[in-house]
Specification:
181 residues, mainly beta, globular
Amino acid sequence: MKKYTLVAIIFLLFFVIAGFWIYKANNNLEIENQNQVINAKNCTYIIDNKEFKVTNGFSEEIIEIDSASKITTQYFGNEVKDDFNGDGLKDASFIITQNSGGSGTFYYITTVLGSNKKECISTNSILLGDRIAPQVTNYINGQIVVNYADRKEGEPMTTNPSLGVSRYFTIQNYSLIEIKK
């Protein structure tokens, strides 16, 4: 009996350690370029021409003084890393979310450009949709490709997203630009 208990404890310990490493890997978005490391979870992002400073993947700002309403900006994930602007430095593109206290959660694609200095250079963010179901982000043939599920036109927001959507983006002059297909 003690032998089985020891084996169970060893397996449990293994899964706890493996889970910790997976969690740490998924929650440590860093870009390494020529011995410079940029943590993209500690950056200022531009959403609808307004800046939001995110620390440890999270930001919360009061909308109005004497109001309980807040805008929450959060790192979501689905990152892809590559050299998007051809400068020889690794860049990262990923999804962030924003919620202002209502029922909507708005998903944006954004990019952090690599830098030889230890500074975060972010691009503009582009709205993907409200309460979508992000799938995967890839870098294919020089384009950032974001795949997600959305609702069909005319469906209520209470309907689960079921329509597959792929959108394509590129970097031009430090800006994230959508490529219409």
